[in-house]
Amino acid sequence: MTFYECNGIITNFTFSDDDDERIYKIRKINTKIGRLNSRGDIDYQVFLYNAIDNLISFSFSAGQNGITNRVCDDVLKELGIECSYVFVREISEQTFTERLRECYGIKYIRDDNLIGRLGGKAYLCRMHEKPIKDSAHKSELIRWANGILCGQTLVPEIERIYAGGKGAASGHPVHYIVKSDDLETCDAATDVLLSALAGNYRLANNNSCRIAVSGKFWAHDDHTKELRSVSGGAAIIMCHKERYERDNSDETIKQMCDMLSKYNRDVLFVFQMPENSKTAGKLISRNGCGVTFVSIAEQTLMQSEAFEWDEDAGSYLIRLAKSANAEPTEDLLKHIEYDREYHAKELRDMFDKWNNGRLKNEVFPEYAELDASPAAPIEEAEDGEGSAYHELFSMIGLTDAKAVIQQALDFFKAQGMYRLNGISQERPSMHMVFTGNPGTAKTTAARLFCQIMKENGLLESGKIIEATRAHLVGKYVGHTAPRVKDVFQQAKGGILFIDEAHTLVDSKENSFGDEAIDAIVKEMEDLRDDTIVILAGYPKELDEFINRNPGLRSRINFHVPFSDYNTDELYAITESIAKKQGLTLAGCVKQKHMPIYSEAVKQDDSGNGRLARSLIEKARLKQAGRLVKIGSARIRKSDFALTADDFEAPVARQEPHRIGFCVT
Known about the structure:
The longest helix has 22 residues, at 399-420. It contains 25 helices and 15 strands. It has five domains: 2-123, Alpha-L RNA-binding motif (Alpha-Beta Plaits, 2-Layer Sandwich); 129-297, Rossmann fold (3-Layer(aba) Sandwich); 313-367, no CATH class; 387-562, P-loop containing nucleotide triphosphate hydrolases (Rossmann fold, 3-Layer(aba) Sandwich), CATH 3.40.50.300; 567-646, Helicase, Ruva Protein, domain 3 (Orthogonal Bundle). It has a six-stranded mixed beta sheet with strand order 5-7-8-9-6-10, with helices on both faces. It has a five-stranded parallel beta sheet with strand order 12-13-14-11-15, sandwiched between helices. A four-stranded antiparallel beta sheet has the order 2-3-1-4, sandwiched between helices. Helix 8 (220-229) links the parallel strand 7 (207-213) and strand 8. The chain is of the alpha/beta class and 664 residues long.
């Protein structure tokens, strides 16, 4: 699968400068694109990534035929968009995935079915197509199997594959579970296995796909197309994510079994799992279609014990040295401990450390005096802190917010300790207030906080329901309370994030907004044991909102402030956004940005992170026009870097002229 972006200059209309109108139009176009993507006669999927003024940018995922200007012209024609220039370039899968996640996050795409056709929600799963190698001989495959310390279980299976003779049958006699805590070992064992099967024509073709699973499993329809595309080949289901291992619910196992039942005749399944995963046993025992699994597992080596091919940990290290044309020394073996089991990765790491020192000190002695770069100290994460925790606390700025969130996490963990030790305590309120100006990452922090709570077992569900006034306030008397109750029920067991909560405050009392606030207070109390409410908004307005109802303030335990970013933080955000999008910033860009940000931070509503993102978006579209003018024949790699000229300072807003009398 390959990935592309298509940029064009529109000639028959322009996008409004008003963000709300522009976003509405982008959503409308992506809705049309959803119908286009559902057609069966196309070899690609597409979404509108961004549009400003008369510049437009699409992202494509495509099959083996790729994307050409003609394909882009056909898409534009279907959408009724006329462009004078169309420029296509290939992008990385990471860039495509980041754009897809970004568009879903800011709701440029609101159709979950469209997200599914584009490859699934980027944070749930990723799809990779890869051809299977079938050129190795049996003796070579056995050598590889022993080399990755999977020989005890993999070599007998290689023997069975070759003993069966060559020829494709209808279906597969067995499917596979490959177990190792090391992802490289899992992949290597899978490659050896598939090479043996392909070399003996046990697979109808050499196509394979890899699907990484985390969290809950996926909806079947999301991957029907992908699994059909490798019909006759193999599907590698990677179940190594920590979050998945903590959440391998019965529903997940059921979905896996259903998938096996539907596709086991057409697709060979290889499930990759950690060494001590409980999923393997459940999968074997619960599949109802009679599938037999062969388990491939990594073994360990000890210095005092030899295996069938007469190898222990020391002799394995010696073999690695000889394969690198190096003479093994005592230094290579001195760290081996007797009666301790070693995995292949541990031994390879031990060899690499020795070999790197040998190369620097003996083979290339001119580098001997240079010290190795000291590794940054790694703080050992506390038990239960997962990827979401580290993502939140590695975000730029937010010093005050991080401190309060850490305090809240410690507080919630402490409550669990009380319960585990049989100490009875009344469950405290867990509700929170996030205050900060627009663009200070309140929503992003709320999403990550929700996942942290789930990863630490502090919430039943990792879901977060985002609501605004439009979701909570009814159109007539008596309509508001049921709407509020319905939203709370959706968030039960997770987090309800009410954005711009201060908009519920109406100019007059006893209005629909007050009815919503009263209903929110009631539900906050009723569901206090398993649901967290986060009220987000601007500092001054949110304080007025909290004071509107006497019972509201007493139910909020944590006030989390999100300060405005300073100039250095804003430029760091710019660099981070560019890196995630696969963009390069020229050296002169910082000089252009710092004055812009210095002026922006003086304003009450600078836009914060949104300003940095807006500057990048506009610069990319301006860059597209610059690249088109250069032309494909004369373009150089350096031309793809964003330059200072691609960035434009936002137009300063004019203060309105006031009419009146001057008091002297």
